[in-house]
Amino acid sequence: MNATEQRQRMRALLNGTECKSPASVFDALSARLAQSVGYELGILAGSVASNTTLAAPDLIVLTLTEFADQIRRIQRAAGLSLIVDADHGYGNALNVMRTVEECEHAGVSCLSIEDTDLPTPYGSGGESFVSIDEGVGKMKAALAARRDPSLVIAGRTAALRKEGIDGAVARLQAYAQAGVDCVFVVGLETLDQLSAIEAAVKLPIIVGSAPASLSRDELAARGARILLQGHQPTAAVVKTLTEVYTHLFNGGAPAELKSSIASAEQMDAVTRVGAYKTWQKNFLGS
Prior knowledge:
By secondary structure, the protein is of the alpha/beta class. It folds into two domains: about 230 residues, TIM Barrel, CATH 3.20.20; about 25 residues, no CATH class. The chain is about 50% helix and about 10% strand. Strands 1-2-3-4-5-6-7-8 form an eight-stranded parallel beta sheet. The chain is globular. It starts with a helix and ends with a helix.
């Protein structure tokens, strides 16, 4: 499946009636594992990319080049329809255009551009947002930079937390009018908020998170097509690596880790050892 086909699969999901969750992936290995258990949809969050590429927090210290390179590694290894959180587009509207070019070339199916004022301005004292006009300019720039019309552009805001439902609706409605394919809301707390957004934008909705009390069916009935569930796989890797390193550093025997780690057969499967052996035989005479 090529990138356009992956994007068309993404659009079919957005145009459907169900609400699904993507696998949170961070590298080639995690993406292939997610696909092996049945996922067709994945996400690389900016926070996860910063955590795993730089071992740094989500403070916009990751560069666009590092982000795009990680996307390419993921897309080479797996056939997921990949959503990426492209933050603020790494700068102003012109930087957004470059971000779209790089992410599209790397093979993403959907990218979100948000209106948070990033990186955090000096003296801001907390989360702040660019004006709606600047946000609209960024969305229009993203759409203008897109070459494959099947690539999905999502307009994202977290303004619900600071400006309330009226402020968030005003922003998302403006981005919908600018032409984005879907909207991405962060900080959702109630079904009434989601209903208000659906009525205003009349576009598929990506929900950044939702209270556990809200069912996927309830979200789907109000226009939500994608629900993010956090980034537990990255945290799981940190926990497991810490335990394994600690065990070995303290003199524990490798054999005692057998029940905690992947088997040789699992490692062979995820790294496609069988395929490489065939290629060695066919092309190297060995």
